[in-house]
Amino acid sequence: SQTIHQWPATLVQPVGSPLSLECTVEGTSNPNLYWYRQAAGRGLQLLFYSVGIGQISSEVPQNLSASRPQDRQFILSSKKLLLSDSGFYLCAWQPNTEAFFGQGTRLTVV
Amino acid sequence: GQNIDQPTEMTATEGAIVQINCTYQTSGFNGLFWYQQHAGEAPTFLSYNVLDGLEEKGRFSSFLSRSKGYSYLLLKELQMKDSASYLCAPSPGGSYIPTFGRGTSLIVHP
């Protein structure tokens, strides 16, 4: 069976610190992978998506970047966090039409 | 671009029926997702409509009218556990990536 793992579940980071969130998928190959962010009181915003190793598309210019070093690994990064980067970050994968979400990381930048 | 409109909040009584409407304007259109999201958790898939008409799945049904840019989610025999946000997410032409609105917060009371 296919599963998606995302960690950590919660994170508190100071302004200006770096960020690395990791997402891995098991039981499938060459999945479409996504990073979404949900700010307080707002909808899910697509940040990045990837259709294969090294292939990243950015939806919204911002203080974040993404990488896909392996087929089933998707990483969200920042060199220097801003207060506005706080939110609920969700990784998702899409085997066909349905998108499955990881458990999410609640990031608080202080 | 995408424009997705759904009510911000709805309330209903346990055992009742509720209909959550969604109108959308997208750059092309492949289909429309409905997701359920409980507070602090990741969204879970409810339905995906491609063709016009009603699709029923247990207590939940979803309707789509492509020509009108309109969909609704119908929840029957409401239970307290149905209190959650319901996210309407059309996928624009050329992709199956869900594009989310802000969601409708449904409160079910006894």
Roughly what percent helix of chain B? Answer: under 10%
What is the structural class of chain A? mainly beta
In the predicted model, the low-confidence regions of chain B spanning at least 5 consecutive residues are none
Note the main sheet of chain B: 5 strands, antiparallel
| Pair with the biggest interface | A-B, 22 and 21 residues
Report on the biggest sheet of chain A. 7 strands, mixed
Sketch the topology of chain B as an H/E string, one letter per element.
Answer: EEEEEEEEEE
Strand order in the sheet with the most strands of chain B? 1-3-8-7-6
- Which of globular, elongated, flat, extended, rod-shaped describes the shape of chain B? globular
List low-confidence stretches of chain A. none
Per DSSP E runs of 2 or more residues, the count of β-strands of chain A stands at 11
The amount of beta strand of chain A, in percent, is: over 45%
How many helices of chain B? 0
The overall pLDDT average of chain B reads 93
Tell me the series of helices and strands of chain A, N- to C-terminal: EEEEEEEEEEE
Structure explained in plain terms:
The complex is a heterodimer of chains A (110) and B (110). Chain A contains no helices and 11 strands. Chain A has strands spanning 3-7, 10-13, 19-26, 32-38, 44-52, 55-58, 65-70, 73-78, 87-94, 100-101, 105-109. Chain B is mainly β and 110 residues long. Chain B is 0% helix and 55% strand. Chain B has no helices and 10 strands. In chain B, the strands form 2 sheets. Chain B has a 5-stranded antiparallel sheet, with no helix packed on it. In chain B, strands 2-10-9-4-5 form a 5-stranded mixed sheet, with no helix packed on it. In chain B, a hairpin with a 2-residue loop joins strand 6 (53-57) and strand 7 (60-65). The interface between A and B is medium-sized, with 22 and 21 residues.
Describe the structure using short key phrases.
heterodimer, A: 110 residues, mainly beta, 7-stranded mixed beta sheet, 4-stranded antiparallel beta sheet, 0% helix, globular, B: 110 residues, 5-stranded antiparallel beta sheet, 5-stranded mixed beta sheet, 10 strands
